[in-house]
Amino acid sequence: MEQTTVSLPLCNSCGRPVKPGERAAKFSCPNCHETLIWRCEKCRKFSRHYKCTNCGFEGP
Hints:
The chain has about 60 residues and is mostly beta strands. The protein is built from one helix and four strands. It has one domain (about 10-60).
């Protein structure tokens, strides 16, 4: 039996894994459009800041 590993995306605000089915958001960085930003449901709800790892753009 072959096993496959799946890596979950990490929230750019808090760093925790974003689980399938969670009301998370993913979008391209509004500044450089090169990095995919993930935000978990909790960080979206509390408007926690995130930072693009490519260009350093910070957003609410």
